[in-house]
Design brief:
Elements: E1 3-7, E2 10-12, E3 18-25, E4 34-40, E5 44-51, E6 57-59, E7 67-72, E8 77-82, E9 91-97, E10 100-101, E11 104-105, E12 112-113, E13 117-121
Parallel strand pairs: 2-13
Antiparallel strand pairs: 1-3, 3-8, 4-5, 4-9, 5-6, 7-8, 9-12, 9-13, 10-11
Amino acid sequence: EVQLVESGGGLVQPGGSLTLSCQTAGFDFVTFAMSWVRQTPEKGLEWLSCIYNDGTTIYADSVKGRFTISRDNAKNTVSLKMNNLKTEDTAVYYCVIPRTRYGRVVPDSQEYMGQGTQVTVSG
């Protein structure tokens, strides 16, 4: 059974930082790409970043330069370090295993999602 468990959310002031972590289990983590998405009632689901199994990273324009995705294959975890947080970053953040299509990762898709962790940016 695939398990994705996010942690690290909380309340932070604008300009502050948070690091989210996702503990995974139930699949061969080292061979999978992993993504982070977030969701708000206003914007719906927004893809943020993906890290491929070779360590290549890609980001949405909205977070490029502020967020950094990383993975620890020894611990089966993926993290999202968020700097210079803005009020518009307030959302529930989810760890995701993206789908593959014809053998290629579709980075902004969701095959599996965790339960999410709330991030609130408010001053």
